[in-house]
Design goal:
The protein contains one helix and twelve strands. By secondary structure, it is an alpha/beta fold. The chain has two domains: 35 residues; 107 residues, no CATH class. The strands form three sheets. A five-stranded parallel beta sheet has the order 1-4-7-11-9, covered by helices on one side. The protein has a five-stranded parallel beta sheet with strand order 2-5-8-12-10, with no helix packed on it. The longest helix has 34 residues. Keywords: Signal.
Length: 172
């Protein structure tokens, strides 16, 4: 009898603990919504820009893809602020933009594949500021050589009228 009560109390404690963790996470999301333009929690998001004048993203337990590869920057410079916690963020930038990346990575990984050219005053300038915790951030340029257009033909299924019974595999 005592063992059953202990298991019941342990179950209630675990339930209360997970409820408290959910409460803390949702409270954090509310705070982030007051600070960032886009807040993604427990979800995935893909955003492809045609024009870009600046934005800010917060991702909590989420995945975010930000595609600026074909975007026209409004003005000479813009900024992108990123906050990520237990999340992954991928940013693709055009080849002709000058990208400055700076931020804080706390127990997180940053893969910055763009070179900042401080002497370049003619290119559009994007500043990426990040604050990431237990997260991953990848910043890369679009590369025409990496872009491969593949045409996929639909394979006929066995319900397709083009397939005859004689074409179907023999049953063993």
């Amino acid at each position: 009898m005592k063992k059953g009560k202990i298991i019941g109390v342990a179950g209630l404690a675990a339930l209360a603990g997970s409820g408290y963790a959910a409460y803390k996470t949702m409270t954090k999301v509310k705070v982030l919504k007051a600070t960032y333009d886009q807040v993604i929690a427990f979800n995935g998001s893909e955003k492809k820009y045609e024009t870009f004048e600046g934005d800010s993203y917060a991702a909590v337990f989420a995945g975010v893809e930000i595609d600026l590869s074909e975007a026209e920057m409004v003005g000479d410079s813009a900024s992108l602020r990123i906050y990520a916690e237990f999340a992954g963020v991928e940013i693709t930038v055009p080849k002709d933009w000058n990208v400055k990346v700076d931020g804080i990575a706390d127990k997180a990984g940053v893969s910055n594949q763009v070179d900042y050219r401080p002497d370049d005053t003619t290119s559009k300038r994007l500043t990426i500021d990040y604050n990431i915790k237990f997260a991953g951030l990848e910043i890369k340029r679009v590369d025409e050589e990496d872009t491969i257009e593949v045409e996929i033909e639909d394979e006929p299924s066995f319900g397709d009228p083009e397939i005859k019974e004689s074409d179907a595999p023999a049953e063993s």
